[in-house]
């Protein structure tokens, strides 16, 4: 499972401040409802593969957001501790999303440093 490109907290802050990152929270809906990184789109890891293969209109209807494009840069996936985020990043890369990156610090680090 090694080898997925990662993003650090300072880098993530910079990307978010400049509006250049799309964040995906791959935790369960219950976890995300209890708190997430502002601007993140919640797609549980169990749904991610089918979500990333949907037609754009279907994705928009289900998630109320534009479907990421294969060539988009800075598609950042995260979870609570890091495992599901890494799994999601690798899944997205396997599907051809070359800009998929893993925020390894995950929501736990975000809460500690940003809250």
3D structure, described in words:
There is one protein chain. By secondary structure, the chain is an alpha/beta fold. The chain has one domain: Oxidized Rhodanese, domain 1 (3-Layer(aba) Sandwich). The chain has helices at residues 9-17, 29-33, 45-52, 56-63, 83-94, 106-114; strands at residues 6-7, 22-25, 41-42, 75-78, 100-103. A five-stranded parallel β-sheet has the order 1-5-4-2-3. Helix 5 links the parallel strand 4 (75-78) and strand 5. Helix 3 packs parallel to helix 5. The protein is globular. The model has no long low-confidence stretch (mean pLDDT 95). Keywords: Transferase. It comes from Callithrix jacchus (White-tufted-ear marmoset). One of its GO terms (biological process) is sulfide oxidation, using sulfide:quinone oxidoreductase.
